[in-house]
Amino acid sequence: MNRHNQGIRKDSLRLILIISGIMIFLSILLGLYIDNLQDKLMDDQEYLEKKTTVADELGDSLYEVLLRARGYFAFKNDYELVLLNDHLDSLEEQINQLSKMAVDQEERNLALELETFYQKFRFEILPRGIELANANDYNALQKSSQGEAGDLINEFLLRIKTYKDENISKVKNANEEIMKKSNSYTLTAAFLFSLGFIALSIAMWIILNRIIKPIEELDAASQQLTLGKPISFTSKVNPKNEIGKLMNSFSEMAITLQSKEEELMTQNEELHAQQLELEEHQQKLQTSLTLQEKTTNRLERLNKLNHDLTFTLDQQKLINSIQQYLQDLYPFDASIFWTTDEKIYASHGLSEETVKRIVHKNAVINKARLKQERAYVITRTITNEEMGIAEQPFYAYDLYSGVFDSNDELLAVFCATRLGIPIHEDEIEELIGILQRVSLSIGRILVFKQIESSRKLNQDIVNHVNEGIQFVDMNGTMIQFNEKLIDILQTNWSHNKEIPVHEWMETFIDIADNKEELEEFFNEAMSEKTTEVMNVCYSINQGKETFLNVYASPVCRNNERVGTIFVHRDITKEHEVDQMKSELVSTVSHELRTPLSSVLGFTELLLNKKITPERQHKYLSTIQKEAQRLTNLINNFLDIQRMESGKQQYEMANCRMGEITLDVISQFIHEKKHSIYLVDESVNDFILCDKERLVQVLTNLVSNAIKFSPDGGTVEVTLRNNHNNLVISVRDEGLGISEKDIHTLFQKFKRIDNSERRKIGGTGLGLAISKEIIEQHGGKIWIESKERKGTTVFITLPVVERQTEQKDEFEPNYTGLNVIMVEDDSSIALLLSDELKRKGFNVIHHYNPKMAYQEALKLPLVGFVIDLMLGDDMNGWDLIRKLKSTDKTKNIPIIISSALDIDEKNMKLYKIEKYLTKPYPPGQLSEAIDAIVNASISGGKGEVLFPKLDSE
């Protein structure tokens, strides 16, 4: 028989392929048939739907034609006629399309009738109707529409509707036909699939019956073979296929195994005997190996202990290592090892309470016995806690051993206990030998600690020296240095590291000013030829300039030089004192010589020459001015001396900074080139102060602002609150100060070295005195400035709670609005200012009406409060006249506050808002300005009037 027909796999595969091929072929035929039929039905349905759409569009177009025709007939609108022609064209196109789609005689007749209707309507009925409409013959037009033409149109509308309904019915029937066909095709496909599944199931059953039953017999035969029973097969299997060959091979294997069974049993017994002998040898080898491993582990532990005893300098680490080694060497139930001096310990199996009792109270040590025996064991009956689950009592063995130094002093103690297992003599002897080696290691650590303690003490002493110290060896390597040297150089050198000569020398050279001189000094000082002490001065600049003096001295040991020590001393203060002395001499000689020269010169003139009384008065005034200048200079020297010695007295009292400021500004009322005024934005200006001293500070600041603004300009003093502080600022438009010089201004006798300021003169003490006074009042003072942009000095002082009978409870209404007050009586100005500030106004005080006018040209203002009696050069009416004649200020409201009677003529002429005759309640002023602001906001333009600035 051919091998192609012998395999079970090939037979089974052939059967499955035949059945599957038949099913696939029938499925393809059925699918093609169904698909072809469905395509035909869908085409028919699509064609019917298209004809329905055409019929629907015909009806719509016909309706549009009638609608547009009637629209034209009714309104004679040419646009309706255009739309009518468009719809007629669409109607003609749709009739042609219907004619092309006709498939039977009825549809062709319908298309022909529609074409006839179209021709007649467009070329006969419609022109006639248009002619009648244009002739306004609506009776004839109505008869025409009700006659033949109307009947024809209605007839064709009905025909189109009937045609559309018939097509819709055909589409519906076509859909029903498609659904019926689809259901029948589905049933047919399901029937064919069921037949195929049944055929495939029968084929699979035949295949499984050919394979599974022989396999089950093979499984049963294998179990029989395992039990040693004979085997047999009942299934009829083709001996030439795979399973038949497998069953034959299994039968032959079973016969072979059964014939060899006895031989294998004999060999198995011999192998078993050999295995027993091998296991005996293996046990002996394992015992030897275990003993060797224990010896190796013990040697390794001993080697680690020796290493720790030799090299470990950490006492706690050494104690831990000894304790661990003894515990591993002699397995104790509990043990502890501790030093007697520092109470450092390591324990095993003990509670913290027991450790404290043993280590800190020495409750278990018999020192005399330890010195005599070095180690001893105490046998005792165990306690109830130690018995555990044991039924009979037994013994515990406590071991005590000590570690002694060469002077027989006890250094450390080892205690251990073992339950039920005695401690033998050989263990004790071995332990004593180990502890003798431990004593050497502990002694070495104690010596190292003493040395390290001495070294640290020396380093601490050196670190607390106020000079920078460094010691270098003969090669120049820096061996030791202190913290002060690190602070001076601002480096991150580590004390545990030696610094090479090139590294530390480069650090000095990089930051020093006199680099070459310093480098030459270091090299010469470290030279072996140098035996004398040397020194040199140098300066470094790391954020601030520091001056230092360094001296070098050789260091010898046993008359042999071992290195060089350098000591760096900070002499910055001494240098500053020397510089200050030089500046003091220079300043005093200049500042005293100039006024003295004037006094002596004018005095000589008065004594030796005949001078007119007017000139005498002028000379005497100059002498008085220069004498006062000398007095102020001497007072400054005395003040600075008292402040430095701590003898300056302050008489503190509650004062108003606004009052102090106005008093100071009034001192400069006759200043011609400068506009000095106060901007008061503060709510609370009460401070605890020495009034005379604050007058001194503010006078000095305003005087400086004037002095260092040689070209004139404004000097603005501002008061405002910042939390619990009052901030006072004095701003000028003068020379300004460079950023690098600002931090030096508060130093005594310090003056900026430039030609412009040198010409102005001064002692350089004013700001130093001011700083001392402000700091004694718990405040701060600082300066902000730019060259050629002016300078602002700021002062902050803590405020105190206002002491009034009843605190005002109000919300400021006009925060940020400016009011200029021109009033030469500081008390009245202060009173009125308080009232306006309650309303939230910023009050700008001026004594000089000319300066007030100049300020009005720069600031946005809500109003003026002007006193009429101001001075000789310009009175209140003069200021008002000038304000009203200037476009930028003519609309600013003005309130007059004066002791003079009302001048009705000028009131009307200058449109004065309010005239308040002194004395009057301050509330009248705030009510007047309140009314002005409300009127400006609610009336007219609806806004407060501000003058336009020049930049606008």
Short description:
The protein has 952 residues and is an alpha+beta fold. The chain has 26 helices and 22 strands.
Describe the SSE topology.
Layout: H1 8-75, H2 78-101, H3 105-134, H4 138-146, H5 148-227, H6 242-311, H7 315-329, E1 334-339, E2 345-348, H8 352-361, H9 367-373, E3 375-381, H10 384-387, E4 395-404, E5 410-419, H11 425-463, E6 468-473, E7 478-481, H12 483-489, H13 501-511, H14 515-526, E8 534-541, E9 545-557, E10 560-570, H15 572-608, H16 613-645, E11 653-656, H17 657-667, E12 674-680, E13 686-689, H18 691-707, E14 713-722, E15 725-731, H19 739-742, H20 755-760, H21 766-776, E16 780-786, E17 790-798, E18 818-822, H22 826-838, E19 842-846, H23 849-856, E20 863-866, H24 876-884, E21 894-898, H25 904-909, E22 914-917, H26 922-938
Parallel strand pairs: 12-14, 18-19, 18-20, 20-21, 21-22
Antiparallel strand pairs: 1-2, 1-5, 3-4, 4-5, 6-7, 6-10, 8-9, 9-10, 11-13, 12-19, 14-15, 15-17, 16-17
Helix pairs in contact: 1-2, 1-3, 1-5, 2-3, 3-5, 5-6, 6-7, 7-11, 13-14, 15-16, 16-21, 17-18, 18-21, 22-26
